[in-house]
Amino acid sequence: MKLLIGTNKGLITYEKQAGVWQQIKDDFVGLPVSMVYTDKRNGTWWAGISHGHWGQKLHRSKDAGQTWEEVPVPKYPPGAEVKPGIPASLRLIWSIMAGGADEPGKLYIGTEPGGLFVSEDGGDSWALAESLWHHPSRMEHWFGAGRDHAGIHSICVDPRDSSHVYLGVSCAGVFETRDGGAIWQARNKGVRADYLPDPNVEVGQDPHRLLICENHPDTLWQQNHCGIWVSHDGAATWQDVTAKDQPANFGFALALDASNPKRAWVVPAVSDYVRVAVEGALCVCRTDDGGKSWMTFREGLPQQHCYDIVYRHSLVRQGKTLVFGTTTGNLFVSENDGVTWSVLSHHLAGVNVVSFV
């Protein structure tokens, strides 16, 4: 088992050897890695690099990270505008996702400023999903929050139907296509945006992370700017399952149990205004009953003077193993579904993304 850790100073690879996690290599040393992804269909590793000077770069490896090749990044077509008078250009590669098993060459990239790009040739070339870019809500109702413009950070492909795709857009909400991208519809019924004059707007919601339950794909979860929501009807409606007067509330990261649609994990922070660990103590929260109740786990995590938070792509689960990395460069692992934790490193740069290979 291997782990890819995308940090502000490079891509770090860990491997579990004889039951012990070891750092085995680093790549792109000194460069901010915004996204890493492994295509399970063919084993290709992908890395999005956010150069301060040269802009966004995209690399892939077909030999498990031994060598990397740079490939063309997605480009907005001439004349594309984020808002009237503001030309669209690639600012961040924020998500990468493979198409379905029946689409061997298809890949998706979600970007800031809110563009979804599609490749049909394994990433050799990219085309903007014009139907989403020209959605009637985008120009007026999509906007940036922590970043200048809206961004697509989550892409979920229905394992039963490759033409059925969900997106998490910050700030806009959840969008769905059932016809391979010809038509996109907002799916935000039941979600609140407490920061807007009308919290129940159809478009303008801020999901921080959107995930689909792999073996029960009618169930989706979102860690949202305003709490935690779950849908059991394919995002047609959402239920607020935020823990009242408990830590499981504001946050970015989310992990799911692939086989149990009622089990999820979050790593909470204080609030949108105070983005640090709750009461200076890092914890992980888990629900086993679809959000009716939440358990809080702390053993092995720092409980004093802790200012860590966990970004949206920096918590992952495989089997009973969970791993998360923090903005201050700490990396933690649990081998028992989050009950107890141990340290893999205190010395990484800020962690943007964690991915199992």
Based on secondary structure, the structural category is: mainly beta
Helix content: under 10%
Q: Say how many strands there are.
A: 30
- Poorly predicted runs: none
Shape: globular
Kindly report the spatial arrangement of strands forming the biggest sheet: 3-2-1-30
Assembly level: single chain
What integer is the average pLDDT? Answer: 97
Quote the distance from N terminus to C terminus. Answer: 7 Å
Strand content: 35-45%
Radius of gyration: 19 Å
| Major sheet characteristics | 4 strands, antiparallel
How many H/I helices? 2
Could you describe the 3D structure shown?
By secondary structure, the chain is mostly beta strands. The protein is about 0% helix and about 40% strand. The protein is built from two helices and 30 strands. It has helices spanning about 130-135, 140; strands spanning about 1-5, 10-15, 20-25, 35-40, 45-50, 55-60, 70, 80-85, 85, 90-100, 105-110, 115-120, 125-130, 150-155, 165-170, 175, 185, 205-210, 220-225, 225-230, 240, 250-255, 265-270, 285, 295, 315-320, 320-325, 330-335, 340-345, 350-355. Strands 3-2-1-30 form a four-stranded antiparallel β-sheet, with no helix packed on it. The protein has a four-stranded antiparallel β-sheet with strand order 4-5-6-7, with no helix packed on it. Strand 2 and strand 3 form a beta hairpin. The longest helix has 4 residues, at about 130-135.
Question: Nutshell version of this structure?
Answer:
The protein has 357 residues and is mainly beta.
